Amino acid sequence: MRRMSAVIALVATALCSGAPEARAGATLDAVKARGTLNCGIHTGIAGFARPDSRGVWQGFDVDFCRGLAAALFNDPDKVRFTPLSTPLRFTALSSGEVDVLFRTSTATMLRDTSLGIRTVMPNFYDGHGFMVRADAKIAKATDMGGATVCLLQGTTNELITADFFRTNNMTMTPVLFERADQAAEAFQAGRCDAYGSDASLLAAARSSMRNPSDWTILPERFSKEPYGPYVRRGDDEWYDVVRWYVNAVIQAEESGVTQANVDEVRRTTTNPDTRRLLGVTPELGQAIKVDPLWVVNVVKAVGNYGEIYDRHMGPASPVGLPRGVNELWTRGGLLYALPMR
């Protein structure tokens, strides 16, 4: 969801300043030797990553970090969270400050090929939208001609909004902010007629507002924003660990494996795929150099994909987003686990 030019310049600076190039196995070896996973997350947004009243980080991305720590160490607490701003997130990854980035970051071709980093696989599907006052008599985005729009600076949302208004021969005035909380506060205060961002981030912002029912997210979506983890380019072993970990979280839901039943399923299942997934036969863990019970440990720690989503993003959560395209493919969504065999 971020514009490429500013990010490319920042990451190029980091790479030219002597950031080490990854060698095969370097990250996994370093993480195991350190005994802690360093995970990059958002600086604070409801649903994805935000500290609770005790200062403990909670959220969809946070649980994916904890789950990866459980896969590596059988301990979801062996993770250090590094909150990263939009401009610095890829720099922090490429320089080695974090091992993996789980931070509302869209998978794009230029990021994957130009920044010395790699997108792994989507774990959340989103799209650009607009939020307006519920009483503004705006039913669709084409009703917003002449509007002022709160936007995050240096994001693809800024470009998408400009393109939308230009394509529809409408004028608009952008009001740019560095952080999402600044944009949301300005929007609430009436500095903008609309707030443009990815729909999940708009829902997260609305959930934190004083009167959430005062605000409406328009139904149109104007872009494809598949979020997913990023790792450094050049370390295939670590890429495999993160990729198949995300895949396993999805596969656990496809297989009906939950926090409540994982031990019972492992003990009783005769399904060869589920037996492999849960380490009854050890080849999956051996393939990525982790404990054969790595998926069992993940599910016990954070649950399967549906449990993570419902806890932090679902209709019963403060964010209140239906699964939609983030449903399993068998239920009309886009989530589809690759075969784990």
From TrEMBL:
Q: Is the Signal keyword given for this protein?
A: yes
Please give the name of this protein.
Amino acid ABC transporter substrate-binding protein
Query: Which species expresses this protein natively?
Result: Teichococcus wenyumeiae
Q: Which residues form the Solute-binding protein family 3/N-terminal domain?
A: 36-265
Q: Which InterPro entries match?
A: Bact_solute-bind_prot3 (IPR051455), SBP_3_CS (IPR018313), Solute-binding_3/MltF_N (IPR001638)
* Similarity comment text for this entry: Belongs to the bacterial solute-binding protein 3 family.
Q: Where is the signal peptide?
A: 1-24
Q: Which UniProt keywords apply?
A: Signal, Transport
Recorded hits in SUPFAM superfamilies, A to Z, give: Periplasmic binding protein-like II
- A Pfam family (short name) is SBP_bac_3
